[in-house]
Amino acid sequence: MKHRRGFNPLDRRSAHRKALHRNMVTSLFRYERIKTTKAKALEIKRTAEKLITRAKVDSVHNRRIVSSRLFDEAIVAKLFTNIAPRMLTRPGGYTRVLKLGERPGDAAEIVILELIDYDLKADEASAKKAKKEAKKKERAASK
């Protein structure tokens, strides 16, 4: 039973767990979509939603609290200027978990954790654009 258990320690010591949270939340805010195991996703979701709620009110105090949990200042700026304003009308539930299936090696359930307003079409278009740019640079370098 899961009575009186506040969180999933993910079979890690506290320093490792805090580093894992920081890294995965930073990746979630950077890419707005990450692929991970279900257990990690559910824990990261809690942390990410608390940070987004905090970022909805842009104040020095809130920026300092978020900065103490995320070490990348560019991601903190993105959270306050780009992500949080998109979530202003939502009272919560900023992320979603999409099941992908089981990992072949250890049968761990793999999921996608993404922000609710993630736009897959825009992501594909930017990937295609980046590919074209790379090809152009390659051609120019070979000439």
> CA-to-CA gap between the ends?
67 Å
Helix content: 55-70%
Structural class: alpha+beta
Shape: globular
- Which superfamily, in CATH terms, is the homologous superfamily? Ribosomal protein L17
Largest sheet: 3 strands, antiparallel
What are the segments in which pLDDT stays under 50 over at least 5 consecutive residues?
Answer: none
Mean pLDDT: 91
SSE layout:
Layout: H1 14-31, E1 33-37, H2 38-55, H3 60-69, H4 73-86, E2 95-102, E3 109-115, H5 120-142
Antiparallel strand pairs: 1-3, 2-3
Helix pairs in contact: 1-2
Structure description:
The protein is α+β, with helices and mostly antiparallel strands and 143 residues long. The chain has a single domain (14-118), classed as Ribosomal protein L17 (50s Ribosomal Protein L17, Chain: A). The protein is 58% helix and 14% strand. The chain has helices spanning 14-31, 38-55, 60-69, 73-86, 120-142; strands at 33-37, 95-102, 109-115. The protein has a 3-stranded antiparallel sheet. Helix 1 (14-31) packs across helix 2. It is globular. The mean pLDDT is 91.
